[in-house]
Fold each of these.
Amino acid sequence: MKIDLADQINEILLDSIKKIIRQDNFQIKDIPKMILLIPKNKSHGDLSTNIAMQLSRELKSKPLDIAHLIVSNLDIQDTIVDKVKIAGPGFINFWLNENWLYKILDEIREQGENYGKVNLGKGKRVQVEFVSVNPTGPLHVGHGKCAAVGDALSGILKAAGYEVEKEYYINDQGKQIDILGQSVQVRYNNFLEEKREFPADGYKGEYIFDIAKEIIDKFQDKYKGRDDKETQEFFKVFTLKKILSGIKKDLKDFGVEFDVWFSEKSLYEQNKLQEVIELLQQRGFLYEEKGALWLKSTVFGDEKDRVVIRENNIPTYFASDIVYHQNKYQRGFDKVIDIWGADHHGYINRMKAAAQALGYSEDFLDVLIVQFVTLIKDGKEVGMSTRGGEFITLRDLMREVGKDVARYFFLMRSYDSHTEFDLDVAKSQSMENPVYYIQYAYARICSIIKKAEQEGIKIDKNKKVNLHLLDKEEEIELIKKLSSLKEVVRKSALTWKPHLLTTYLYDLASSFHKYYTVHRVITEDKELTKARLILIDCTRMVLFNTFKILGISAPESM
RNA sequence: GCGCCUGUGGCUCAAUAGGAUAGAGCAACGGACUUCUAAUCCGUAGGUUGGGGGUUCGAUUCCCUCCAGGCGCGCCA
């Protein structure tokens, strides 16, 4: 494996700094992390570092002086670096030998679908748990955002060398499931002209009626007027199954496949609660007060202690979650990421406190909060309460704008900004949609390659093509974009920001469209044509790889 | 009252772990199809980064404070 060019520059910089420290007897604790960045402005070189400014504080000396010292000790013999210059307040800018650009193309061709992968995770096991919506109704638009973010983040972490497991936690027991069953049961009886009172906090959605109708179709009046244990259980189980299979189908059609569907009920069946209570008791983090059992979550920074077992002996929702996270830990993950909606952010502290009370390190569990989606339809906001029954489902959204548009829209901005999703705009502007813009770049490339094939132009993998012919400004620009994929993957895996990749996609597509407008790929010049075909094929590959990480499809024609 | 998130051109958002002249798209205006897909490209205009302080070589980014919006503060889930 070749040395990364950033690594190479890091190395010679480090050598130089070490030399200075020795020569001039500087005292220094640690050398700050070297940050090499690609300057926005071309006149600042191909790569740049601010290390001199970073060191200035520690060395108590002017950034410019340090920069000069570093540069004069820099050994650029036999490296990719052509020229070094100091600029501004103390930036050290590097100009690279142009060969490096063409080496990028070789690398892409060599690695194919693997280009863009980095080994940040080194095989560490990460669990990403997301969506995990109570199975009391269909998924709505807000859940779609969580699904898109969770799935994309998982893809990013995989590309960054982590071993990722995606999980959906099903709250398939408890009070809300009882109410759900009752809601359907009442509707069922009402359809059969049996008077029943609808539960005060019952689920009012249209889908409840549909399920009731379905039960009539299948079982006629078998359960009419009955209210024994068996009947209640029947409505609960039937409804739960129905809704859950709907959720699974929605997610699958949205392109999200989970590795594990984890049932809350199964934890109780295995009597895991008792185990966890005993463990917490042993560790001294439980106490009784007012007939209830409390967790001392304040010890770990929670605002107040929390009830685990109620006065009436029924465990709280929180208790289940503690048991569930205990289970996650026992499955041996190095890291657990929970993705929650913004309405649950007040829950983070107690959950992290619980994890620590169980004895896990503070950074074992991290919770990522996805801010709400405000959906605009016909110019006004649409409410999204499951219980109230008024919402736009993820299914509706997919029907209206398609899977790719929906996913991209959720991912194109940072998940922690509350985004407005104007349905009318997403539909009516679909021709100017960023998704189409990007996919169009891909389709264009495919179409050129197809045409070249028809004209009998073939790229022989073994035959040398003179890539130095790719010397136009737009070509250099495009290759540089291609080269930065790995950096983007690394960064987004480190910061858990999928939108860095959507931004990158747009950027890359833009570079390609510009190139396309100015230069023709297929020309009379055979050698040039071949070189350009390689360039666009590499672009195609990079687009493809990024699409794959984000779960967006790559159409060969549009 | 306390906590979390947000505030950037008219609108929707970026800004790479604090970096160089704050960038895109939409909307506006003016251009480019005899071409491998015009679902594209080029140009013009548009900014006191909510206000005020601070930290330093440098702040959209970090700290304090105020203002505005969203969301939470249960022996609900």
Amino acid sequence: MNSKQIRQTFLDFFASKDHSIVASAPMIVKNDPTLMFTNAGMNQFKDIFLGNSPAKNARVADTQKCLRVSGKHNDLEEVGHDTYHHTMFEMLGNWSFGNYFKAEAIDWAWELLTGIYKIPVEKLYVTVFEGDEKDGVPMDSEAMGYWRKHLPEERILKGNKKDNFWEMGESGPCGPCSEIHVDIRDDQEKLKIKGRDLVNEGHPLVIEIWNLVFIQYNRKANGQLEELPARHVDTGMGFERLCMVIQNKQSNYDTDVFQDVITRLGYLAGRKYGSNEKADIAMRVIADHLRAIAFAITDGQLPSNNKAGYVIRRILRRAVRYGYTFLDFRKPFIHQLVAVLAENMGGAFPELIRQQDLVINVIREEEDSFLKTLETGIKMLDGIIEDTKKKDHTDVNGNVAFELYDTFGFPLDLTELILREQGLTVNREGFELAMEAQKNRSRSATQLETGDWIELQQAEGDGFVGYDTLEAKIRINRYRKVKGKKGEFYQLVFNTTPFYAESGGQVGDSGSIEANGIKTEIFDTVKENNLTVHLTRQLPENPGEDFTAVVNSINRRLTENNHTATHLLDHVLREVLGKHIEQKGSYVSPDSLRFDFNHFQKVTDEELNRIQKKVNELIRTNDQKDELREVPMSVAESMGAIALFGEKYGDQVRVIRFGDSVELCGGTHVKATGTIGQFIVISEGSISAGVRRIEAITGSKAEEYVENQLKALKDVSILFNNPADLKGAVDELFTKYHLLLKQAEAFEKENAVKLKKELLQQVEIIHGINFLAQQIKVENSAVIKDIAFQLKGEVENLFLVLAAEIDGKANIHVMISDNLLKEKGFNAGSIVRDLAKSVNGSGGGQPFYATAGGKEPSGIPVLIQNARRLLNSQG
RNA sequence: GGGGGAUUAGCUCAGUUGGCUAGAGCGUUUGACUGGCAGUCAAAAGGUCAUCGGUUCGAUUCCGAUAUUCUCCA
């Protein structure tokens, strides 16, 4: 069976058991401060387990794209070195939300593995929870009973709390779990040591493939467990491992999931997989990371320099690094593997095919820039090596290596590798110390203390009512205090709210809540998981009473203008630039709107002009808003609604239509497009390879902008006495100005030459030296400098002192011919300092030329005398 | 969110105790050579040294702020 069949078989099997098959949620998580990426199959169902929202289907199955690169599950540094760790992987899972429980979950798992996938029974082991006295949980004899039907006692093992009791977090839903392990060692190995002794012992060939979690408890904040009324099943089976087992391989990377990519990579590198240990590691790293990056990009997460985007960038760089070091790639190569990946996985994940060009371009650009980073790093390292050797040291200062890593992004392992070739090492201790200091700095800067939720009441409410009203009677259900570096604030959760929480690019509402004539300001509204959280600096005096919540309507209206304009822009972009346009991000605030989209060239001025014009036409058409709140996804699709990759939609979606523009959207919009007034593009630019950004303003902001522009234009026009052709007038002035400037320069030069000629007449010979000391009249010191250098070129044996009064200050220049410096030991710097005493100033410069300034120009004649005396005394 | 770096000619970059009237290579323009293409040689043009402020006799260089950007940590 190939991997495509294996995946499909899983889904078909559970469909036949009345499960509804759902799509994978995006790998990039939004609206959850505790999680950056989806790291387990259950993530998208978290709200159901927490009881925040009801389950739409009691039985569900899917394959979920997961990424484990940060936080609790951080496998990044392991990947490639063994044969089974991955950054991105697929988790096959089936769920029961208060529906079936242990019996069915166990029976079906067994049926699928042994009956359909035909995995030999004698390779399998299962585990059940042994119980825990402290928690008062007995051994899971129920599960044990069901397993006994399928396999002999000696293949059923008891596991401890660490392996066989699953918890989501410190508190919340939890329960015992049963794991299915498989022993894929060869017979010889099996004779030496029994498989059952290797279960959960970290052996690469005796591995867990399926975890069946039975959620039946809730852990309270005080640590106690209570029975849940509704019991759930949550299972997860690693797809790549499953393929390895079914295809009789001993490494995930030997399955067809990875082999296509590895083969292609081998071709590009001119090496064969399996012929060299280090090269093999590199090839595994690259094959794995390619998937993570490609899927992240199609989910809308581009590599960038912070947060999730930065994690993606780091993964890509790790891949480039391995390719650079062990496969000798010096030019971008990873992007050349995208086509193979798309062919392999595009069936199950169509976004890969649809966005293939974008993925290739983004990866290539990233590779390019990192290879450049490596190049400059290597140059710097060369300097460091030279330095170290000069000092006769054998190890490089840890701080230096850290700077290379921290500031210039040059990886430590590469530093060490290159140093080793030179017989040098890095002082690891110093490096780690510097790293620790950096971490401490960051930690102390981001410390956020979150207090416990304080439950006030459980008032029933209508949730979000802000589509229809900006004012509502509300009650505060719970609140908590959050302490950050910038001070403290409170998070409030209402039963009903007219406040829109930041999402879909639209900023959160601000406003106030009021009781007994006392207002409490709400400065922002955000979403945490599915909760709408209102932020305030101050807690109302009596938080339990009734409030009137009022949204800042001015800002809301301005924001709506911009949001609707964004939809119109999206629509027009497809019309003007082509159907390939897809939203890659957007930001809608009261002040302006920002829209990012994939497009591979600069949007020309002419196109930009047409875009702006068309949007304004649509505004004037004054299309009425057509808002459909609860539409089945399939209906929305048939309406031609634009959906976003990387966005998770429910079965029921909200559709916003203005004329031909139809989008799935949760944001707030104007009643009719005419309200927007006017749309003006402020800028167009690139934010990354293949992604462009348009910024625009609307309504009163646009009006203000036009007014300012017109006023500026008018002001300029008045300066020119309102000419018929303003541009022509400015052009003419400009030309004249340049001409005059040239003439003035020429004049100045001429004067300087004249002055120089006069000065040449004044040269005297003192002790065989051509001496000249004069006060001259010039406009700026650059002219004196020019004259001094000219004289130096024309007069040998020169000792020159020029002084001038410029802007009420003395300006002194001393120039001495090179031969005199040696012969007479002159130093212009010390001479000028000495002379400057007469004008109450100081100065310095090089031995042959120095300048000084002084506050008392009246001393210049004395200064000239002193210069003469100085030379006389040299006799 | 915090730390560190970068910003010099159209492009890629040099330019360390603050003073060398700001440089190189590529590119551009012009001229010469060759029957043309191409090439070789010669010359020229091109810079508010990111912006604003400060220290100084003097700032591309030192200090502060801002902008843009890279990078590491969270």
Amino acid sequence: MDLRHLRYFVAVAEEENIGRAAARLHISQPPLTRQIQQLEEELGVTLFIRTPRGMALTQAGELFLEEARNIRALVEQATERTQRAGQGKLGRLDVGIFGSAILDAIPKLLLAFRNRYPDVKVVLHTLTKAEQIEALRQRRITVGFNRMLAPLDDIGVCQVSTEGLLVAIQADDPLARQPVIRFAELQHHPMIVFPTGARPSFIDKVIGLCGTAGFQPSISQEVGDAVTGVALVASGFGVCLVPESATTLQFPGVVYRALADTPPNFFVDLSCIYRKDDQSPLLGAFLETVEDFKKTCPAPLRV
Amino acid sequence: MDLRHLRYFVAVAEEENIGRAAARLHISQPPLTRQIQQLEEELGVTLFIRTPRGMALTQAGELFLEEARNIRALVEQATERTQRAGQGKLGRLDVGIFGSAILDAIPKLLLAFRNRYPDVKVVLHTLTKAEQIEALRQRRITVGFNRMLAPLDDIGVCQVSTEGLLVAIQADDPLARQPVIRFAELQHHPMIVFPTGARPSFIDKVIGLCGTAGFQPSISQEVGDAVTGVALVASGFGVCLVPESATTLQFPGVVYRALADTPPNFFVDLSCIYRKDDQSPLLGAFLETVEDFKKTCPAPLRV
DNA sequence: CCACTCAATACCTGCAAGGTATGATCAAGC
DNA sequence: GCTTGATCATACCTTGCAGGTATTGAGTGG
């Protein structure tokens, strides 16, 4: 049996007339007669009563008509759904994020993606940089977000945003009275750095920047992410260099100050990473959304 | 698209290897490759990622696999159900019966049929003889039960049972003292006859029998069926000739007596009628059951 | 670097789906 | 009562496509 048989059968059952059904199917009458005969023979069931006025369904035929319509509808639905899945409009996207990613452009980006592709289920996984790369290779995630990514030959990178740095400082610190702090002035303040874990990372960036500014920071504490870092600033552990977007974190007793006399290469970037060999339409759809996102809202990211 | 495509797709998805799938399908590898390519092209969706180790499903492929299995199961179920319907094991049988048919072999017969074909829904319609023939011609019923059927060229007849007659008589009637009553002795008793409605019928049989016995019955009342007839006997309206099976009706004050000196052609038959041109397997199954019924229980009908 | 494993391609063959012409059957109409 | 028209069935031809064999291409692992 064949889907063609079902199509033909339904047509004949609906027209109750082989000739008209054949016309509707754009074939001639004899092949249709034969296909119906074949179908009956294969099932071993008489589906139609041949009358001089046309074809009338038997009881078994009535039943088969229901089933055939059912099957045809299911086939149509299956192709439709599969095609949507093939266009990245339906399915599941696993995304790797890092600890404090929630402060950044990521939520806005994910929201934009969900609006465009409401039937794609986005699943977030909190993973370190190394874990993200591992997970990408094992296909456990499709995209990851991270900073300071070294190029790899099987992993593609797409920069999402760039931000400058601010210093988080206790409000009652003398330096905090200045609206802008010169970079070198941080020299004698104990510094909180993050993240612990996989290197190179934001921590190395900070240390490097201090180096180019001519001093070595006195590290008071290493913490896991920006949130903890700013919390420790509030507790008086020292100052902490954070990306601009961390201003979302409003801790009592902590203020953010812009820096002057900053070294070159002062910006940190947020990028998303993915398998270069991944042809998945979901990935394509996501990267497209990232590109559009960069075009439509670059401004808010530099605030 | 084709059911073959689905079968092939499922095989490849399950084996994750075209060669093994081809072996399982008893075809060679290249046609299978082509069929999968065709399927992908027709859907416009990449279903598999070709790896050097074999074929891996894409997300869209995973989804399509579910759908394909679903469809294949539905097709299998549809053929199975249709075949059962085609063998008369599934469906609906509309049966025409007459008023007092409930007294007769019909309940036993219908019970036997339901035991054999539990998935056939039997629907009873109370119809007069003429209505039954009309309903058969319009296919509103598939079989009918009746007595005294004149042959018709489009209606087939199959005799179910034959019974003799008894007389229903008031218990305090002098005649009722005799264990057996001679037919001619009924001559001066008023007689209740049935049914009203379409002729020729049981009523004509009774009048005819009286004629051959040499008298004309004095008809006290015409009623619709045997039940009413016996009820009127209880009320003193007269005697009533009934088929043996009417002894099921036990009215207070009414006894049944056998008849002696009966005319020839004293028996009444119960037959079922059907369209001669009806090839329905349900009808075949029913008539078969009737035949078996006649074979297995002829005795109880003559009690 | 070679052998091995897969999938893809090229090309051929045969069957079955589709087409045309015609037959068989029945109902309705002049 | 024969004819006409409608309907499904049959006969026979043609062709497109499924399936086969042989081979190539690509990537992996010893």
Amino acid sequence: MSTAKNNKPTESELEILGILWEKGSGTVRDVHEILEKSKDAGYTTTLKLMQIMHEKGLLKRDTSSKTHVYEAAISRESTQQQLLNKMINTVFNGSASQLVLQALGNHHSSQEELDKIKQYLNEIEQQQKK
Amino acid sequence: MSTAKNNKPTESELEILGILWEKGSGTVRDVHEILEKSKDAGYTTTLKLMQIMHEKGLLKRDTSSKTHVYEAAISRESTQQQLLNKMINTVFNGSASQLVLQALGNHHSSQEELDKIKQYLNEIEQQQKK
DNA sequence: CATTTGTTACGAAAATATTCGTAGATCAAT
DNA sequence: ATTGATCTACGAATATTTTCGTAACAAATG
């Protein structure tokens, strides 16, 4: 369906995707400046990575102006789901709720977030009663 | 602290850890036979991987008999947490509860598991009220 | 005891991922 | 128009991960 999707992003590629999902879109320099804060690599390294990602179909780009503008070509949600599935299977022995417990345990969540989760749990239960 | 821990497991290494966490311990052949079901690699490949993992301190081994017996040297929980943290930061933009919702959404969880999560949520809320 | 089978050790090839140097293009400012 | 800054393209070097062939040895089998 989508023109590309078979390539799973590497570690570095995920970092770039994360940035673009947040920003919506951006130039190589935009991305690089954010990346620099947490990572130590040169500009052309980021450039090359983003070019590769474009080839793979992970990024779209607008080349109408000299400075190209990139955005993610795969959705955050589907990528999240794909990574979660693999993680659940390999490390959590297939148990999604085990992952949930572990995630809740060591991260501080606001009351609002907890409520959202509870509400969601209720919805799931309602569905299952049917 | 621990004799080793600085080396984060690679993709393949995680698969082996997952197997050993389940089994408790096992020989190369034990692990390989399970691995084979989902992966296509030779016996010596698995052997080599486990030897490397032992060097890195990811596995312990008992060499008292000819056929060595391995077990995980790092805990499932700490590894899970480490992976979750990275995933939350790069892909879920720092929101643990976003990860939780996504995980609950697309995986079927039993009523029992859902109850456990709810109970856990309540405990967290109690703590926060203090 | 010779042969087959199963095991570890080891080195190195192959495959992937990451990094960067350099060249050429474009554009803005002198 | 020359200079300087910034950008893309591209190739290649590095680094990392994965894979496997081969040798050596031990144990079991005939």
